[in-house]
Amino acid sequence: MKTKITRVLAILLLVLPMVFLSCEKDEDSSSVDTNKIIGLWNYQSVDLDATVNGKTPIAFVMDEFDVPEVIAQGMVDEFMDELEDDFLSEFPNSIDIKADGTYVVTFTDSSTDNGDWEVSGDKLIVDKGSVYEMQMTIVSLTDTKLIVKLTDSQKEDITEDGIDETMSVTATITYIK
């Protein structure tokens, strides 16, 4: 049973980071002051929230593998720590959003990437129309703090029982100037 649990958590670890490549769209028409978003934003923190088939990861592991909560909690804590580490290795340390509609991101290994950006309602959209398009909901924006949220769901048979599970992840990311 431990091997199956380990495999399920490993698959979750591989699949959930894909959340950051495609994002669910929220319907909200509020607008954002684009002048405030221009500037160099440095990563401060991330809060990751995951569900599997609409259940918390702890409830899913307890139900699927019939283990007590304390064991499920330990497994999920380890998994979420690994997920956060993977997220941090893939997501930029800083984003320089320029007034000309372009941006430059710098990653932990000092590599950079660039593209274009726009704001539509409460969405920060990067690389619109490309395969790399990402839409982030702007949760909060002040002169010195930017909080964005990404949400995505993936279907995968992580328990190897022939039935796809739906995994959803929401990342709330805080940047500061």
Describe the structure.
The chain has 177 residues and is of the alpha+beta class. The chain has an eight-stranded antiparallel β-barrel with strand order 1-2-3-4-5-6-7-8. It contains four helices and eight strands. It has a single domain, classed as Beta Barrel (Lipocalin).
Rg calculated over all Cα atoms: 18 Å
Q: What's the CATH C level?
A: Mainly Beta
Q: CA-to-CA gap between the ends?
A: 47 Å
Mean of residue pLDDT values: 83
Features:
4 helices, alpha+beta, Lipocalin, single chain, 177 residues
List the helices and strands and how they pair.
Elements (H helix, E strand, L loop, with lengths): L1 H14 L18 H4 L1 E14 L4 H9 L3 H22 L3 E4 L4 E5 L5 E9 L2 E4 L7 E8 L3 E12 L8 E12 L1
Antiparallel strand pairs: 1-2, 1-8, 2-3, 3-4, 4-5, 5-6, 6-7, 7-8
Helix pairs in contact: 1-4, 3-4
Please outline what is shown here:
The chain has 177 residues and is of the alpha+beta class. It has four helices and eight strands, in the order ααβααβββββββ.
